[in-house]
Amino acid sequence: MPLRQLQLPPDPAPLPTAVTTVLADGRERLTAHFARPGLQPGHGAIPSDHELVVRCLVTLRAKEPGLVRFLEWGSGLGIVAVAAAKLGFDAHGIEWDDAMVDEANRLSARHGVRVPFVAGSFVPPGSDRLLDRAELSTRTVLQSDDAYDRLERDMDEFDVVFAYPWPEEEALYRQLFLRHGAEGAVLVVYGQLDGVRAFRKVAGRGG
Ligand SMILES: C[S@@+](CC[C@H](N)C(=O)[O-])C[C@H]1O[C@@H](n2cnc3c(N)ncnc32)[C@H](O)[C@@H]1O
To answer: 67, 109, 160, 182: which is deepest, by most CB within 10 A?
Structure first.
């Protein structure tokens, strides 16, 4: 099955106050998180443009209200997932870094939404052949574990997956989504150069 690109322009309307409050809190938490003494230089958890991503999710929500179950791959401090919950998505997150998962849980609690965040790898089991083929000097952790078991969800139960891959990682992310995502599900990716793009897994040959 191939991936077909979707048009997902950012919604220009003012965001709901509950969402702008999450984004402002998230900015503060990011500043504090990266100011921690002892943080390793070269740490790869660079945040996406959360407001831009959220505005594109507003568009997706309006266009396709049936897409509800949302997963952030590499959820960092959980800012996109918590904002997505405020938009009405049934949001979840998987993040490798335990300290970030703790922060994400605190963010969701402060904003009164239930967003399961689990520590572990978003790379689903059964990806070994794709990982073997990926010749990457990557910041993504290229191993799978039981994160989906702990979420009590399989990858193909999610309608929308959001991720921020490095440019050289995006092809692998797309392959992982094609391999494990549900038909009709949408992968939303952020890139520093390309902004937000979205791809739907559709029936047919290719991919
Ligand atoms: C570029 S940051 C993006 C953070 C956040 N999604 C955002 O948009 O601001 C990528 C995140 O993915 C995490 N990560 C890398 N490999 C992972 C893996 N295999 N499973 C879960 N998280 C992973 C990193 O620790 C980092 O927090």
So the answer is: 160
